[in-house]
Amino acid sequence: MSTLEYIFDANGVKKAVIVPYDLFKELLECAQDAIDISLIEEVKNEPLFDWEEVKKDLKRDKFITTL
């Protein structure tokens, strides 16, 4: 395990932590995964859309010209 470094205030209370960059990247990826899972759970019971209908609507509204 990597070494963590703590920053204390004048009263000895922990105020911050310094983590190695690799650990920071791993923590950030875990947080992003948790957000993704939460968003999936939020919309998993929403109705689905037919891709051909979506493309037709996008073309009709001139958001795309080809697809």
Topology readout:
Blueprint: E1 5-8, E2 14-18, H1 21-43, H2 51-60
Largest sheet: 2 strands, antiparallel
Report the β-strand fraction as a percent range: 5-15%
**Poorly predicted sequence stretches spanning 5 or more consecutive residues:** none
How are the strands of the biggest sheet laid out side by side? 1-2
Classify the helix fraction into a percent range.
40-55%
**Averaged pLDDT, please?**
93
Total strands: the figure is 2
Q: Please report the number of helical segments.
A: 2
Order of helices and strands: EEHH
Shape: elongated
Rounded radius of gyration (Å): 23 Å
Count of the domains: 1
Helix/strand class:
alpha+beta
What is the rounded distance between the termini? 49 Å
Short description:
This protein has two helices and two strands. With 67 residues, the chain is α+β, with helices and mostly antiparallel strands. The longest helix has 23 residues, at 21-43.
